[in-house]
């Protein structure tokens, strides 16, 4: 997280956030304050509410109860354009037209900033080029979208989000479809971005690079704090159904999780 003497203000807040579908509670009473410049990881088993939480924070879904605040303003009071100028989302199964090139897909990230009075400019071209470079896809910029691999498309979706130049970046399983080198590269990139980031992650060892972790279980936020505080052996057993303990990597002294399924 960005260093400084002042306490960073909240960029995104969830207040009593709940979401139900046909009587089924997918999210229940979540209170969460995400600080400016923070890299927050959201972890939990499948069906714990990770994706639902991100969609509510982004305004993609409307909460059954509670509210979301973005940059000190209630989300429903902001227009879609205003939200898109502050917040970008990389969804787990994002769709893009097959008929465009990778560069054209990334250029769509500039849409919230364009209007009749503010047409496309050289600055937009520069921002798009930088976003493509950030995810190391310059050599594929003119490739048709349908010829890209799943991993290349995922990186391009991240580039499109970066092209929005958001203050807040929400990513739902951003390392899906990527090989291990690309996973580590994308996570390092996200952690170095000068924005507030919220990532839903499956891999607990990859989540250790986050400033804080929000642990979800059964649609509830059951723990919030530094990775080493919240991923206790007791919580790993209760939430994820695995046994685990901490190891120290002799190469660089970093702590890592050793996970295993219990007997029976």
From TrEMBL:
Coiled coil where? Answer: none
A GO molecular function annotation here is: ATP binding
Q: Does the keyword Ubl conjugation apply?
A: no
By its UniProt entry, which InterPro entries does this protein fall under?
A: AAA+_ATPase, ABC_transporter-like_ATP-bd, P-loop_NTPase
Q: Classify the source by domain of life.
A: Bacteria
| CDD domains the UniProt entry points to | ABC_Iron-Siderophores_B12_Hemin
Q: Where is the signal peptide?
A: none
Q: Which Gene3D superfamilies match?
A: P-loop containing nucleotide triphosphate hydrolases
Protein name according to UniProt? ABC transporter ATP-binding protein
Its ancestry begins with:
Bacteria, Pseudomonadati, Pseudomonadota, Gammaproteobacteria, Pseudomonadales
